[in-house]
Design a protein that fits this description.
The complex is a heterodimer.
Chain A (H helix, E strand, L loop, with lengths): L20 H5 L6 H4 L5 E7 L5 E7 L1 H4 L4 E6 L29 E2 L5 E7 L2 H9 L2 E6 L6 H5 L26 E9 L2 H7 L2 E8 L12 E6 L5 E5 L4 H12 L6 E4 L16 H11 L3 E4 L2 H6 L3 E2 L2 E9 L5 E13 L5 H10 L10 E9 L5 E2 L6 H18 L4 H8 L8 H5 L16 H12 L14 E11 L9 E8 L5 E5 L8 H13 L6 E5 L16 H28 L6 E4 L2 E4 L5 E3 H11 L6 E7 L7 E11 L5 E10 L7 H20 L5 E2 L2 E2 L18 E5 L22 H13 L10 H12 L1
Parallel strand pairs in A: 1-12, 10-11, 13-17, 15-16, 20-21, 27-30
Antiparallel strand pairs in A: 1-5, 2-4, 2-6, 3-5, 7-16, 8-14, 9-10, 9-12, 14-15, 18-26, 19-20, 19-25, 22-23, 23-24, 26-27, 28-29
Chain B lengths: L1 E6 L4 H11 L3 E4 L13 E6 L8 E4 L2 E5 L4 H6 L8 H4 L5 H6 L2 H6 L7 H8 L2 E5 L3 E5 H4 L13 E8 L5 E8 L9 E10 L2 E10 L6 E2 L1 H5 L8 H8 L2 H4 L10 H27 L1
Parallel strand pairs in B: 1-3, 2-3
Antiparallel strand pairs in B: 4-5, 5-8, 6-7, 6-8, 9-10, 10-11, 11-12
Helix pairs in contact in B: 9-11
The chains are: A alpha+beta, B alpha+beta.
Bound molecules: flavin-adenine dinucleotide.
Amino acid sequence: MSDNPTANFKQVHHSVTKIDAKQLALGKDSYVGDLAPREALIVKMLWSPHPHARITSINVSKAEKMPGVKAVLWHGNVPRNIHCTAGQGYPEPSPYDTFIFDTKVRHVGDRVAAVAAETAEQAEAALKKITVKYELLEPVFTIDEAMAEDAPIIHDEPEAYVPIPIPYDPKKNLVAMVGCEAGDFDQGMQDADFTFDDTYETPYAQHCPIEPYTSLAHVDSAGRIVITTSTQVPFHCRRIVAQALGLPVQKIRVIKPRIGGGFGSKQEILLEDIVALVALRTGRPAFWQFTREENFITGRTRHPIRVRLRAGIKKDGTITAIGMDCWNNTGAYGGHGLTVVSCCGSKVLPLYRCDNIHFDGKVLYTNLPVGGAYRGFGATQAFFAMESTIDKMADAIGMDPLEFRRQNHIQSGDSSPIFAALGEGKEGTPMTIDSCALDDCIAKGAEAIGWDKRTDWRDKTGRYRRGIGMACLMQGSSIPHIDMGGASIKINEDGSFNLLVGATDLGTGSDTVLAQIAAEELATTTDKMIVYSSDTDMTPFDVGAYASSTTYLSGEASRKAAADAKRQILKTGAEILGLPVDQVQCVASHVQNTDGSQKVSYGDIACYALYSKNQYQIIGTGSHFTEKSPPPFAAHYAEIEVDTWTGLIRVLQYVSTIDCGTAINPALCEGQTEGGTLNGISYALTEQYLFTNGRMTNPSFAEYHIFSMRDKPPIKAILVPSYEHSGPFGAKSVSEICINGPAPVFANAIYNATGARLYEFPFMPEKVLKAIQAVKA
Amino acid sequence: MKLCEFLRPASLSAARDNLRELGTKGMILAGGTALHFMQDHTPVTAVDITRLGLSYIRPDGNFYRIGATTPLSDIQRYRAPRWAMHEICRRISTHQIRNVSTIGGNICRVFPWADLPVVLLAMNARMVVYSDHENEYSADEYFATQPAKRFLDGNILTSVKVPALQAHHGFGSVKVSRTTAAFSMVTIAAVLELDGSIIQSARIAAGSAIPFPRRLPNVEAALVGKEAVSEVFKEASTKAARDVPWRSCEGQSPEYSQHLAEVSILDALERAATFAHGRAE
Ligand SMILES: Cc1cc2nc3c(=O)[nH]c(=O)nc-3n(C[C@H](O)[C@H](O)[C@H](O)COP(=O)(O)OP(=O)(O)OC[C@H]3O[C@@H](n4cnc5c(N)ncnc54)[C@H](O)[C@@H]3O)c2cc1C
């Protein structure tokens, strides 16, 4: 090995073509929608038009008699099992507050009744024949209303509870509470030369995967339910459907085909219980795909969070105290509420060295759309506050914000009390930072954006003003002692391998990445890997694709499985060659002696083991859970131009650096980084949920604006090398972190351009204009 | 609308006969993109007019004549002296929509966000409508109300005549949108006729953030006879509020829409003046 361990890698650290690229480019049947048989019944749902109401009566008899209708489901004819739709660990750190159907609706877009019919038109026609009487209840639309003394109670059902020992008080609309202290925050504030106390608000957003939520179910000839679904969490899906329907897990198989994006939205079980029930009741396959409007209104969203950030610094730039109070609006159901708010603290506060830290997070029900997992998961919201305040701190002491960050950020060998204090529904895990190339990220990003040319906003004149902003970021890689991934690998006669993983490729390329890792360990090539993933009957368990875990966690499981198979290959190879095992090694799909003069191919080894002597299947298995969650780090920069007459912002260039450890597949890492950054750019600039009486009024791409490729500003993704010893071949994670940058980067760039500081986004032009006018005044 | 049947008549007169026969059960189909916004599921028979030789752009005396079924992408790509229609077409939705969406479809049923009526009003275009003979309407007359009413009895828009801009004419347009494919928050188009530096005549039109595209007579009046300079443009733009009440748009307040319109008017006028001066050289 050279000093640079990545230099010797033959499979990892190479931009291998995605193994499903050709199939997708050729438009082969790949997605759930492609796989629905002609005879599948089509499911449609009647959604609540009210934000908060009790269903006093419901009559489905006319609907049941409508042409083509095969089933109508409502609260009167389905099992009433309380459960949680969030696919997380088990037991979930989220309240059990959901029924398949309930007698109460808690947001516009809550379930009322489902129809399954031969065609979509027939199902829709039947929905119109369902008569529902509602007793309207006072709705709760803001976290302040939710916390008010006599606030209406959104979850008054007696069954609601949380399955782990954490505070849950639905009578106060309180979903969860979490907090921690390190050092003495008040003292830290007193010791400061400058103090800061600002409140930031972050908005709703939807993930907008191009493939909407889609599920298909049928009952197989053995009477088991097979659910083919667009999910990030097939194993959680199986468990949750079993809970909701009151069936044993054994009765259910979940298959995930190719996925057209998830970004966290498909970490939730929103359709699968219904298609499974329809299939069971009718004996027919059942297919349900959300419309785009349904994706917005009843799909999951990013939790809007209010963050109060208090901090103190000394004149020399030492941070003496950081206090973060978060109020998380989780909407009508509480899934992911606690963990998202925990990540506001756990993924953000450790970034800067500080002895005195206070964190408090509260999660509240409202009668608005339901929050869920979304790439960035709380860190996105909290980094807006943190990185805006960091710029304010630097400004207060007249220091370059880049230097201020460099002086204060966490380094290799450091720890943070937050790692130990904040976990997911329990205490965290102490951790010392191994790899950290944040200094390099800062330096390379600064060079790429031209930080040198940045000038003070007071020197700028004219209508169009340019500004440069930056932010530093971190995230995690998996959830220690909670996440788990498994893999198995077996050899075939031609030296190819079946790699079976529970991990879920939702378009990210993780099947390819895991194949590269296994191939590297086995000293073979990636094209020898036949990957099959995410099938609860066929593949080992994996918690699923979330928490930036797949490469780091499931990658290590694949590596371990490959190492297990390799041991067997070496043993059999040595036997064939007539050499002791310690005198052979794996090189280029062969077992050979030290100088390569004697060797036998993997294919011959497989045949020998399968057909000739001491017959056995060479098969390796591996499971992995993590002891730590090593953060990837990033420095983001943007140059923008603000039209000070209109408040409109143009992004001139964006630089997104990332230290993700070893980039297992650099092209895919760059893709993730560019995609996540662009996702964050439109979240910061144009995406907004508009409401009238709790109803989203802009649930379409015509009115909810996400950036397309034609809107994409020049984005430069820079992979900055580091080596994380706890990860497979030095890898950490790449997928989430990059969405956290744009909101604070733009806030800081707007300030640098105009002197206007914005405390909420999206940075709609009217808001920007008002802030600019306030500076002028 | 729900397309249940499809007719492709061989001639304009056959198309008109079909439409008159079908009455409210018939619908002219050009690019068909507006169906996306007409989701009431009323069953209709589509009468396809895209193969009737109505897709062309050609000079015609002092005009450019654009056939009614000419796709927006053709208009976007067309170049000729004193031609300015490409500018706004480039800004309408996506390539895919522009490839099929036609000028006729854009102006026969005008949606609040339609951009072409704004430009055609400013340009003083003329619309040619076929009944049993051809009638020509000025833009002011044509866009006085929703033009769809004009086509209820089988009439068909056949072409649009856009005046070729003269040497001392200038054109400028502004479309403000949140993303490239988004509907406009405000669209402004301006045509200035200059005599030296003095504005002889002005046609300023607006769309989006108001109920229906229209001209802004108070803005125009504040320009005529004045010098084509920024101060005059700025003063004139403040008259936009007198012409029309501006609406809230995409969560922005009505006051902001008005402000945005005023700045956009100013920008459109600056562009028009530059255009006119450039051409005069
Ligand atoms: C997603 C999307 C975004 C869009 N954004 C914009 C935008 O930002 N700005 C903008 O200006 N436009 C925009 N459009 C286009 C616009 O909304 C209309 O869809 C389009 O202009 C209609 O043109 P068409 O050729 O497809 O007409 P069609 O859909 O075929 O017809 C539209 C209407 O006009 C009638 N009609 C068509 N041709 C004639 C004729 N020759 N004589 C009489 N009646 C006729 C039809 O019967 C129908 O009622 C957008 C469209 C889409 C789908």
